[in-house]
Design goal:
294 residues; mainly beta; eight-stranded antiparallel sheet; seven-stranded antiparallel sheet; 1 helix; 21 strands; 11% helix
């Protein structure tokens, strides 16, 4: 560098420092580098956001939002379930029905009688399901009930904890189920035949003058504390306890024929195809008889 670009510093013999013009050029170069780094970081963030839509997840499977509508799977879309004959609590085995792209898991705490189920999954709906399922093979009549809670208050509104009686472990199996949704809805649903759309009867319960309302006239959603399903022959009914009162039947039963043996159990679906959430099902009652939902 030319000598005029430096000035001697009297207090440091033999050391030279850049002139003001050189410092200005260096400062400009540093700002340019910083801008380039910022652009790289922003582009990387955009890439991560775009890549967050897992390439294994088709667009139709993402949940509804202000810019997207979830629709039924194409008629030929199926995934084989992942089945594990690993007992857990009162259940004989577990399955990732429909093999969501994020594997599910479950734990059981014998001291608290709580099953914690973690699962991703686009839905338990339409013509096929994706959810973690804890099951037991049975024949004849059945009663199944559980308390339900969702540890994460910020999960997707339509996530659901389910009590399900299925013909088999395929993603499009015939089934009857009851569910508590994250947003508070409960329903009794059925898939009448393999690979057909689910139909249901839905219940949304709320009250006014309850805690959480903006004012005394606000309608506040009330979540059921406990739900159950009863199989009596070919008749299936939903039972509910809103606040700990004795279980009572909601609405009319549905009719569905299942050949024995079939599968009876509990499960959870996050309603987001590539992101897990969890539900806790406790004080689970499972009886090989009707009239035992409590």
């Amino acid at each position: 560098m030319p000598a005029r670009a430096f000035l001697a510093c009297p207090s440091h013999r033999g050391r030279m420092f850049p002139s003001s013009n050189s410092r200005l050029r260096i400062s400009r170069r540093l700002r340019t580098v910083c801008r380039l780094l910022l652009i790289v970081l922003l582009l990387g963030n955009v890439w991560c956001r775009l890549n967050a839509q897992n390439p294994d997840v088709p667009a139709w499977a993402y949940p509804g939002s202000a810019t997207h509508v979830q629709v039924a799977p194409p008629p030929d879309f199926h995934r084989p379930s992942r089945n594990f004959e690993t007992p857990i609590g009162i259940f004989q085995g577990q399955s990732d029905i429909g093999s969501a792209v994020v594997p599910g898991n479950a734990t059981y705490d014998a001291a608290t009688r709580q099953y914690t189920i973690q699962s991703a999954g686009y839905n338990v709906w339409y013509t096929r399901d994706e959810f973690r399922y804890l099951w037991k093979k049975m024949s004849g009549d059945a009663s199944l009930a559980a308390d339900i809670s969702f540890p994460d208050p910020n999960g997707y509104d339509d996530r659901k904890a389910v009590l399900v009686i299925r013909q088999n472990l395929e993603d499009d199996s015939k089934e009857a189920l009851v569910a508590l949704h994250g947003g508070g809805m409960i329903h009794l649903a059925q898939r009448r035949e393999k690979d057909v759309r689910i139909t249901d009867m839905e219940y949304r319960i709320g009250g006014r003058g309850l805690p959480g309302g903006a004012n005394p006239d606000s309608l506040v959603t009330v979540h059921a504390k406990r739900i159950g399903i009863e199989k009596r022959g070919d008749s299936f009914a939903i039972f509910v306890s809103m606040a700990g009162e004795p279980m009572h039947q909601f609405g009319p039963p549905i009719t569905l024929h299942l050949d024995g043996p079939f599968y009876v159990g509990i499960g959870f679906c996050s309603h987001v195809p590539d992101r897990s959430d969890s539900a806790v099902l406790s004080d689970v009652v499972l009886e090989n008889a009707a009239g035992k939902v409590h």
